[in-house]
Hints:
Elements: E1 8-9, E2 16-19, H1 22-31, E3 39-43, E4 48-56, E5 63-71, E6 79-84, H2 90-98, E7 105-110, H3 123-140, E8 147-153, H4 154-160, E9 164-173, E10 183-187, H5 195-202, E11 209-212, H6 221-233
Helix pairs in contact: 2-3, 2-6
Amino acid sequence: MKSPDSHFYVPVLIPGFIDLSEEESTHAVRVCRAKTGDILRLTDGKGHFANGIIENANPKCCRISIQNIEDSENSRPLLHLGLACLKDDANEEVSLHVSEMEVASITLIRTEHSEEPKDSDLKKVIRRCERKSLVSLKQSLKAWLTEICGPISFEEWFKNYTGDIILCDMDGKSSIEKIERKTTLLVGPEGGFSHKEIETIKNYKNGKVTLLNLGKTRLRARTAAIVGVGRIIL
Length: 234
């Protein structure tokens, strides 16, 4: 069998024998038709890779052996995304696409104009976003899993944040210099951040604030998040 053009996720990579989760085992054996003796490319999402030799091709519990652990050449990404909570499946859509790129984390932020159910803790949304991030980690062959955080209020996030900020704004620059430290791209909800929130961001004192223009047309929030991240890191 040709090795699948995808990574398989193992939370902790250590030399020796380990069992893949049932989900990863099913994907390897039933979908990719892996057999005993085949090699799977593994990642822990923490900057490490390994080749795993299949010892028992069981679709419910695939046992593999690992000899060596490799360190990625890329350090943990400096870019983070702060996304105002969106409605429907937009949070998941952003998580899927942004997590294919070198982004350290996505934090769902509750803002004045965000449209998520205010009486929900969004646990199901967070779990679904985490699954999308994991899928993207394996498909994109990245070394680092994009962490999903939140939900958190804008006030609480802002109070505890240190680092630089990039805010999507029509009056901003069309390009950004290479980031050198922890930086969060802030993307508002449909309709944007409130005037009060924008002023709070622009008066931020614990780092540099840069305004980024995403083009001449008005973008939906989910589109702005993807375009913004691409504009910064690509």
